[in-house]
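Supplementary notes for students who missed Thursday's class. We covered one full example, reproduced here. Read the sequence, then the structure, then the short commentary at the end.
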Amino acid sequence: MSSSIAVIDSSGLQEMVDVLRERDYTVVGPTNREGAIVYDEIRTIDELPAGWTDEQEGGTYRLRRRDDEAMFGLVRACSHS
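Structure (token representation):
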């Protein structure tokens, strides 16, 4: 089995959102709402949580700034060594 990776830059991602909306699709993606990452309708990629990640561990949830502007760098499970 072979796998390939495709990377879409931000203008290509926005174009994809625009085309889907023009075709009457509801586009849903991760958003930063009231201190949590929640999935909601988006109209532009500016609504994506670029540069944020969420950390989750047994009864704990928090948002943390990333060192990059990744738009889909979510769900970081914490673990104790």
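Commentary. DSSP finds one helix and five strands in the chain. The chain has one domain: 10-77. If anything here is unclear, bring it to office hours.
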